[in-house]
Amino acid sequence: MTRKVLKFGGTSVANIERIEHVADVVAHRARNEGGGFAVVVSAMAGETNKLVGWTKEAAGDGLVGAEYDDEYDVVVSSGEQVTSGLLALALRKRGLRARSWLGWQLALRTDEAHGKARIKGFEGEGFAEAVDGGEIAVIAGFQGVDDNGRIATLGRGGSDTSAVAAAAALGASECAIYTDVDGVYTTDPRIVPKAQRMEKISYEEMLELASLGAKVLQTRCVELGMNNNVPIRVLSSFADPGDTHAGTLVCNEDEIVEKQVVSGIAYSRDEAKFTLLGLDDHPGVAAEIFARLADAGVNVDMIVQADARREGRQNMVFTAPDRDAELARRTLEDARSEIGFEELEVNRDVAKVSVVGVGMRSHTGVAKAMFQALSAKGINIAVIATSEIKISVLIDAAYTELAVRALHTAYGLDAE
Ligand code: ADP
Ligand code: ASP
Ligand code: MG
Question: From atom 6 of ligand 2, which residue's Cα is the shortest distance away?
Answer without folding.
Answer: 157
